[in-house]
Write a structure and sequence with these properties.
The two termini are 36 Å apart. The chain has one domain: Rossmann fold, CATH 3.40.50. It is of the alpha/beta class.
Length: 304
């Protein structure tokens, strides 16, 4: 199968291409940078064909992908800087990347009859209550610009295509790029105490594990909406930080605070990021390992 992957310079796209190559699929990676800008770790992503384009450039998207004629597209490219998305000067660009760019990808997927997998987020919901969000919930009410742009991307895919997967994820960490674990370990090395919110509840997602699931999905025609995070139970960011500090061997004291007490975020954050993942088993997919196990494997691989 020939699979086109956008956003290979990011945490997830990097791992997706490596997983595709491991399974002997023919893959083509793309991103906005002229050359691949991720980690040069000797992995497959540094050797597969790479195409530079801006997903907001409709002509470039259409001409490039029509020429490649992939069987499937895994669309990882996105604006993910949640707080920066709130800045007035960025809002049009955020919409252009996450909504218009996704529409461009969906339109060309339809033109070449390729199945499409779109990565979305728990931020499409209002983040209230304690009930885990179901994959087929439609009571959307995004709290911020980023969430609205990702919802607009979802709607672009679902209104254009029949052969699509929409996979919502949360609290992502991976080897390629920045993430909460890297940031907090670096802070913990130079501080005796750190403050971490304890009233936002969800589950982390390790991109290495997620990439395997996404390739499992794209090899099938079990289309629809899914939620995918690691197993291991719902936790707070405080719980998460305590666990990876312990595994890493840091003695830094972690102080739990409320979102209101923390008070540093421009964008409103969801209190309820619980995603129900039971549909994965129902569809015959293997759930991701526990987040505790994922942290242990990540810490062994990451240079922290």
């Amino acid at each position: 199968m020939k699979i086109f992957v956008t956003g290979v310079g990011g945490q997830l796209g990097h791992d997706v291409v490596n997983e595709l190559e491991r399974r002997n699929h023919e893959s083509v990676g793309s991103d906005i940078q002229e050359n691949y800008s991720g980690v040069s770790d000797g992995s497959a992503v540094t050797t597969v064909p790479y195409v530079q384009f801006d997903i907001t450039n409709r002509d470039a998207v259409i001409h490039t992908i029509e020429d490649i004629k992939p069987d499937a597209i895994i669309h990882c490219a996105a604006w993910t800087a949640v707080d920066a998305a709130e800045d007035e000067e960025n809002q049009e660009k955020v919409h252009a990347i996450n909504a218009v760019g996704t529409q461009n990808i969906a339109d060309v997927a339809k033109a070449v009859d390729a199945k499409m997998l779109y990565l979305s987020t728990d931020y499409v919901f209002d983040g209230q209550g304690t009930r885990p969000w179901q994959p087929d919930d439609k009571n959307y009410a995004p709290l911020n610009v980023y969430g609205q742009s990702k919802l607009d991307g979802e709607l672009a895919v679902s209104s254009t295509l029949e052969k699509f997967f929409i996979v919502r994820i949360a609290w992502v960490f991976g080897l390629n790029g920045k993430n909460f674990i890297k940031t907090m370990i670096n802070v913990g090395k130079t501080h005796d105490t750190v403050r971490v919110v304890n009233d936002q509840i969800g589950t982390p997602t390790y991109t290495l594990d997620l990439a395997r699931l996404l390739v499992d999905m794209i090899e099938t025609d079990k289309y629809g909406y899914y939620h995918a995070t690691n197993e291991g139970g719902y936790i707070s960011w405080y719980d998460f930080c305590c666990e990876f500090y312990k595994q890493y061997g840091l003695s830094t004291t972690v102080i739990p605070v409320t979102t209101a007490e923390y008070g540093l975020s421009k964008a409103a954050r969801p209190f309820n990021s619980r995603l129900d993942k039971s549909k994965l088993k129902t569809a015959g997919f293997t759930p991701l390992p526990t987040w505790q196990d994922a942290v242990a494997r990540y810490l062994k691989e990451a240079e922290l």
